[in-house]
């Protein structure tokens, strides 16, 4: 069966989170130390404490993804203490670590945690600015600090929202894929059951023939030995066919037991292909039938599968390609039966066997071909659609009732 290639998504580059966080922490620490060394200090004896606070503002960011709330508490406390100790010597980089930590909390925690953290941070910074600088003089700094805190929180919250949306989309894609596979499995199982029911009827027919031939051989064994021999040979051939069909049926159903619906109805074979063509023509689809090679009786299961493949292909044309015309090519080769159904013209979507859209035509044809070790190809052509199947065959004599 034709397979449509689906382009796989491009692999995303993903850096090591610990490497990224370490780079951010060390970079901010270096920047803060440079700024601290270049600023005048009014209390030289406080330099070791200032260095320690600067490092506490940045280095804990290495663990920001694992302990976001704790890292925020440490970096914010260090920044607040540094501003209290040396308000006149605060550098531009001061507070960057706590802002990154706030961003991380907003990104990795719910708003019930991040909003109070941002409000507390903005309130404490604002209070410190008002206390140290006064309201008229510190109003601009108060507004800038509040906006900076709000911006850091908003960026983190936006990242969290986008992450949740992406995860929801991935979960939905996985669910849709699981549903599609389940529908495909159910469609294949339904086709298996349908094929097995038909093989069950064929096996029942074979057994009936065996019983009749065995009785004929028993009656003729004394008076007509040759006739008895012919009947016994027919029993052997029919038994082999019945055994092969039984194995196929068991291979499909496993331990299941098919019902015998329509057991009395004759199973269609290639001898009824002409009748099928006439029925399709009456339905409004012009069909041409071409048979090549030496036409001969085949295994009943093979003939049934070939008939069903042609029937399903023509049904597909009737349903999805109104106004088209079709051609059936049947070729008897020494070891295979080749089937090709091609249509031209018409319009409408084709059944490509996608369980999402409940298309089961090609699924059934594929299973019938695979049942006998054959192959099926199906796909669009420049002017229509083509279904081609190859079924391995072995000539089988028709046992006379």
Structural account:
- The chain has 401 residues and is an alpha+beta fold.
- It folds into three domains: 17-133, no CATH class; 185-253, Single alpha-helices involved in coiled-coils or other helix-helix interfaces (Up-down Bundle); 270-392, 2-Layer Sandwich (Heat Shock Protein 90).
- The chain contains ten helices and five strands, in the order ααααααααβαββαββ.
- The chain has helices at 17-38, 47-58, 68-85, 96-108, 111-133, 135-220, 225-253, 273-282, 300-320, 361-371; strands at residues 287-292, 325-332, 336-344, 375-380, 384-392.
- Strands 1-2-3-5-4 form a five-stranded mixed beta sheet, with helices on one face.
- Strand 4 (375-380) and strand 5 form a beta hairpin.
- Helix 1 (17-38) runs antiparallel to helix 2 and helix 9 packs antiparallel against helix 10 (361-371).
CATH topology of the largest domain: Heat Shock Protein 90
What percent of residues adopt helix (DSSP H or I)? 55-70%
Q: CATH superfamily membership of the largest domain, which one?
A: Histidine kinase-like ATPase, C-terminal domain
Number of domains: 3
Task: Give the CATH architecture of the largest domain.
Answer: 2-Layer Sandwich
In the sheet with the most strands, the strands line up as: 1-2-3-5-4
- What is the strand tally? 5
Oligomer: single chain
Measure the end-to-end span: 39 Å
String of helices and strands = HHHHHHHHEHEEHEE
Average pLDDT number: 75
Query: What is the CATH class designation of the largest domain?
Result: Alpha Beta
Strand residue content: 5-15%
């Amino acid at each position: 069966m034709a397979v449509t290639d689906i382009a796989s998504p491009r692999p995303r580059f993903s850096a090591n989170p610990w490497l990224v966080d370490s780079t951010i922490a060390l970079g901010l620490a270096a920047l803060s130390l440079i700024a601290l060394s270049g600023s005048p200090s009014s209390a030289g004896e406080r330099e070791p404490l200032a260095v320690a606070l600067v490092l506490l503002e940045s280095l804990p960011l290495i663990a920001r993804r694992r302990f976001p709330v704790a890292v925020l508490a440490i970096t914010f406390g260090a920044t607040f203490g540094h501003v209290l100790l040396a308000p006149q010597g605060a550098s531009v980089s001061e507070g960057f670590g706590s802002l990154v930590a706030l961003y991380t909390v907003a990104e990795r925690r719910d708003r019930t945690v991040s909003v109070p953290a941002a409000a507390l941070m903005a309130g404490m910074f604002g209070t410190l600015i008002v206390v140290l600088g006064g309201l008229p003089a510190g109003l601009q700094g108060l507004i800038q600090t509040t906006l900076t805190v709000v911006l850091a929180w908003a960026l983190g919250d936006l990242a969290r929202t986008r992450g949740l949306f992406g995860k929801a989309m991935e979960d939905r894609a996985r669910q849709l894929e699981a549903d599609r596979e389940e529908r495909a499995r159910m469609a294949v199982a339904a086709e298996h059951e349908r094929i097995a029911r038909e093989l069950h009827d064929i096996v029942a027919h074979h057994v009936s023939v065996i019983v009749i031939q065995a009785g004929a051989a028993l009656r003729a064994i004394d008076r007509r030995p040759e006739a008895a021999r012919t009947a016994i040979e027919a029993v052997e051939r029919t038994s082999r066919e019945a055994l092969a069909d039984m194995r196929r049926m068991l291979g499909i159903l496993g331990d299941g037991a098919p019902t015998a619906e329509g057991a009395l109805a004759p199973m269609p074979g290639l001898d009824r292909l002409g009748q099928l063509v006439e029925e399709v023509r009456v339905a409004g689809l012009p069909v041409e039938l071409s048979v090549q090679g030496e036409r001969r009786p085949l295994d009943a299961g093979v003939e049934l599968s070939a008939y069903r493949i042609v029937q399903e292909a023509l049904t597909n044309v009737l349903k999805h390609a109104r106004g088209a015309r079709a051609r059936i090519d049947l070729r008897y080769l020494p070891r295979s039966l080749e089937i090709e159904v091609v249509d031209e013209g018409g319009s409408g979507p084709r059944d490509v066997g996608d369980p999402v859209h409940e298309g089961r035509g090609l699924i059934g044809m594929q299973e019938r071909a695979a049942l006998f070790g054959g192959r099926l190809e199906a796909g669009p052509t420049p002017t229509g659609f083509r279904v081609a199947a190859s079924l391995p065959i072995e000539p089988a004599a028709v046992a006379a009732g």
